[in-house]
Amino acid sequence: MHRVAQVGFAAVLLASCSSSARHAGTTASSTTRTTVAVSPSASLHITGDRELAGDVVDASVVCSFPTVDGLQVSVFAHAPDSRISYRMLVAADKVFVNVDSGAGATFRERNFQGRGVSAFDVTKGAQLDSQLLDTAPSAGVARGAIGRITAVKGSVDCGNQTPGSSTITVTGTSRTGRYHTSRLDPVLVECYFNSGQLSVIGITRAGNENVLFLISLGSDGVINVEEAPAHAVQRYYGSVSGLATLTSNGGRAHGDVVERKATPPHTLHIEGNATCGTPMRD
Questions:
Q1: Could you give the CA distance from residue 2 to residue 166 in angstroms, rounded to a whole number?
Q2: I want to staple 87 with a disulfide (CB 3.0 to 4.6 A). Which of 11, 25, 40, 213 is the partner?
Q3: What is the pLDDT tens value at each position of the chain, 282 positions in all?
Q4: Phi, psi at 256, each rounded to 5°
Q5: Total Cβ atoms within 10 A of residue 264
Q6: Domain segments of the chain: what residues?
Q7: Using CA atoms, how far apart are residues 154 and 133, in angstroms rounded to an integer?
Q8: Would you identify the CATH topology of the domain 165-275?
Q9: Which residues of 110-120 are buried (b: 16+ CB within 10 A; e: fewer)?
Q10: Own/partner pairs for 9-12, CB < 8 Å, 24+ apart?
Q11: SS3 236
């Protein structure tokens, strides 16, 4: 399963999909004018311990990223030491930086936060000049030997990236609460046609609680769902083929997904259409 721009749920809960946002090309309009696709980009410098400091490498930017605290700009990048990753969420009044390394049993991470955000626009980008302090660790994840960063400075540019659109709703009862044909809004839609997958990230409500959802539609007709309330992620799966359909610019969901590793399991109904944002991914 893709995880959107490497800064999806792990950074929001504190992860997303591994995909480069650096695409370029031209599309002809209905007139003779041509619109150039401007790639999202980030030029950021980290101050901190030796293995962490320097300009970030291979930055991937996702703008208009839905979180329970509102739309933000997310950035996934590497330190000059490629074994270390940065996952950032930028809001109007703060920046959150997750530093991690390793995988599986060796995975370690450390979280930092600061202010110093200016010229913020979720559709355009932001300027950063932020002093960073340690913030709460992610539940159950050890810091290990990850060092300290003290500042991040530079800019994030959304280019002409767009978030896409969706009419997808969630109906049913989970451990979080009751969803009454609850529409995902705001929403981000990313399409990965080479791997036959469409990912929809959005916010909906269970009672009075805002809840983050990741809904993945596959070319095999299957739906995968992650529900991420404040306490823990619940995962659901629709094992019957034909619940999802992909099109040339989006997809449709129509079916039930059943909670994994729960007795008794909850069931949610996923219904609606999604249209890809741009750029469409490889």
A1: 18
A2: 11
A3: 444 444 445 555 443 333 333 333 333 333 333 446 688 999 999 999 999 999 999 999 999 999 999 999 999 999 999 999 999 999 999 999 999 999 888 999 999 999 999 999 999 999 999 999 999 888 778 888 899 999 999 999 999 999 999 999 999 999 999 999 999 999 999 999 889 999 999 999 998 899 999 999 999 999 999 999 877 789 999 978 899 999 999 999 999 999 998 999 999 999 999 999 987 666
A4: -100, 145
A5: 7
A6: 4-25+35-157, 165-275
A7: 18
A8: Lipocalin (2.40.128)
A9: bbbbbebbeeb
A10: 9/212, 9/214, 9/226, 9/228, 9/233, 10/87, 10/98, 10/138, 11/74, 11/87, 11/88, 11/89, 11/96, 11/98, 12/67, 12/68, 12/89, 12/212, 12/228
A11: strand
Q: Taking the model in full, what pTM does it have?
A: 0.84
Provide the sign of the torsion angle of the four alpha carbons 95, 137, 75, 89, taken in this order: negative
Q: Torsion angle of alpha carbons 25, 28, 32, 37, nearest 10°?
A: -40
Instruction: Return the amino acid letter for 281.
Output: R
Rounded to whole angstroms, the Cα distance separating 123 from 159 reads 8
Q: Can you list the alpha helix ranges (DSSP code H) found in 61-214?
A: none
Write down the residue that tokens 């009044």 correspond to: 93
User: Cβ(102)–Cβ(78) under 8 Å?
Assistant: no
